[in-house]
Design brief:
By secondary structure, the chain is mainly alpha-helical. The protein has one domain. Helices cover about 90% and strands about 0% of the residues. It contains one helix and no strands. The longest helix has 23 residues. It is rod-shaped and about 35 Å long.
């Protein structure tokens, strides 16, 4: 369960970073 939560957290962080980059633009 802990591993699943950790992966989920990393996934959310990665998604947030990519979303932030796309929103900020080049």
């Amino acid at each position: 369960v802990y591993l699943c939560q950790k992966m989920s957290l990393i996934n959310e962080m990665y998604f947030a970073i990519t979303l932030d980059r796309t929103t900020a633009g080049p």
